[in-house]
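[Automated response] Your request has been received and processed.

Submitted sequence:
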Amino acid sequence: MPSRTPPPMVRINIPTVNLSEAWAPTPLRKHRLGTRLVRLYLPCLLIFSLVLNIFFFTRPVPLLRPSSLSSTRADDRAHREYDSVDFKRLTDLVLVPGHGVYLGDGLPLNEASWYLLDEQRGEVGAFMAHIAKAVEIVKEHDQSLLLFSGGKTRIEAGAYSEAQGYWAAADRMGWLTKDVYRRVATEEFARDSYENVVFSIARFHEITGNYPDRITVVGFDFKKDRFLDLHLRALRYPKIRFNYVGINPPGDSAPLLKAERRDAYELFAKDLYGCSGKLAEKRMSRNPFMMNHGYAKSCPEMSSFFDYCPANPTAVYDGALPWVN
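Generated structure:
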């Protein structure tokens, strides 16, 4: 049987290849574009982060509500519970002078829920801090009565008084709990700080039948001197029975204090009872609904005092007053 000749061998030359080159992927255009975008936006992100951190650490510290108060609205008003009060045993007046007008719609912490003058923008937090602090004081002293004082001062706000607005704001926040609900009321005729004090004393008498043994005002700290130096002098009310709790808006209060001295303190220093000039004009402008109080009738002991306007505008009333021995 003839033998088979094997086929000829074929030599194959395999070129030598560098493995690192063989396995290196070819850069894609999309990958190169992504790298460029990272290089472009990373510095922008770092700059934004830096600005955000600077703002966070340098921003004004917001006013905080007292920790004893909740911010939950009382919803079940049809079945509201409240403690009974013997008003005749109340001895202390806690007074919050009104400023802006809360209109009753929306959250009280939202400026859009208030009627405000331009210069009052940014002060709603302070208004709410005044309300909260006053409620806290009344909670701690069961013989005290809280009055929000302020009339229907702005025609643009409609027939809402400043006092009504403050009461509604406190209620909306859920702060008028059963232990204080009947000891929070309103005084709705005052048109300036002097009337806040005088009319609230009269309103205290209407509710309790007595005149307050002590008065605590919760308001702007930059207005403190006006009350202590001028209003107490006009009323001849003993300083030892008066306390002022001052809370300013966040930020620099120097411009506010300067405006206070120019637009109020110096005017009352020359006209203790606000009977003429700019103070009288302010009162007229802040009574667009032509409201008139009846305190002379409900507080006969003070009847002649309400109309006191001496020829000498710095002359102090020397007639009888219930709190002067």
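Summary generated for your ticket: The first strand starts at residue 92 and ends at 97. The CA atoms of residues 170 and 176 lie 6 Å apart.
If you did not submit this request, please reply to this message.
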